[in-house]
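I hope you will forgive my troubling you with a question about protein structure. Could you please explain, in whatever detail you think fit, how the structure tokens follow from the sequence? Thank you for your consideration; the sequence and its tokens are set out here.
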Amino acid sequence: MKEVIPDINTNKKIGLAILKSLFGQIPIVNVFSAFCNEYVNSNWQERIEFTQETLLKRFSELDEKFEEKIRERKNFASLLGTAYQSALTDIEEEKIPLYINSLINAINNEDLDNTKIHIFLIFLKDFTLMHIKVLEFFRAVNCNGYRINLTACKMNSKKDMNAEIIRVTRPELVKDVNLFDSVINDLYNKNLINVPALSAIDSGLLMQNNGISVRFTTDFGNEFLDFIKEN
């Protein structure tokens, strides 16, 4: 794929012409657009416009060093294409900024090799927003579990006990305990957290009242969260 590098006059135009020229060359955009012209053109076009506007806005805010990194990055077009296609086709629109964060961080972080970038982009594509929220939660757990009257709750398992403790602080994560447990297992199987299930968590750590957060994420999990966050 041939990349056209425009004459950029100001910092605010960094990479914008490059991005605009590449948008039309990404196959999935043309293929899906043809399909959606007949069926769901309006929604699809809104998604394309929102993704492009968000991406262009973020790139326009970056500095000269980032422009130079784009020029030096031999696989920039591939990174852009992968992130852009995933952002367009992901069923959760709220994840679009995360794909853009990933693209920018992949370019900025020279120490991050292509293998990790590839794996992390797959994680982002495969995981739901709930997976990411659960992973963020386990990065710094502080449940204020002392507010729970476990005797009154009449818990019949450690799984239910831990779910109730977490529900006090993050009720949106524990609306469906079995789903929450499944998400935990997904993250554990990808080596992102060090507990395989709700029942494996030390309730005492959740219940502590010393103001210190407990971390259940692995180093790999922390790297992934840093990769998708806005820096």
